[in-house]
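Hi R.,

Here's the chain you asked about this morning:
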Amino acid sequence: MRSLGFNDTGKKMKQYLELLNDVVTNGLTKGDRTGTGTKAVFARQYRHNLADGFPLLTTKKLHFKSIANELIWMLSGNTNIKWLNENGVKIWDEWATEDGDLGPVYGEQWTAWPTKDGGTINQIDYMVHTLKTNPNSRRILFHGWNVEYLPDETQSPQENARNGKQALPPCHLLYQAFVHDGHLSMQLYIRSSDVFLLYPLEEPAQYAMAA
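And the predicted structure, written out as tokens:
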């Protein structure tokens, strides 16, 4: 799909609407962990040129506070919903334990990836440092897919969190940067996304903010 500007109100939704139509028209019916069932397409690309405007989708009402505060929460390394709730965000409540814990989800993997010597690595700091000091590197990326902490699909999110696993595995999981002539490009790999419900809330706007 070609990149479209988001300042033009006649075009800013075109890519997203094409993606929705693709799912409805070409989606394959599959079972899933929840028993709900899905229509799925694979390996689709969605592009934004941030020079053309901020990619906030307009086909549904979006809670911008949730978009911004969830990103802040993840970048801080927090994995408990208490701060989210205090800042008006409820989207993680369903999967947390009674103490608000989600296990080692996004923020912990981003900012405290465990090392073999018992230490941790802040992948965000690594990425920012590399962008500043070696922008031609092809290793400017971070990810949250730590197989050791992936949840057991036979247990509930709460049980997984209590057992030191992630309540849910990361959906948006790998983020890579590319720099050329002073311009930053970012690529995000999403393994799973509800394009009708959560995609408008999280991926385009949230990672435009991160970039």
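Residues 60-210 form a domain with the Thymidylate Synthase; Chain A fold (CATH 3.30.572.10).

Let me know if you need anything else.
M.
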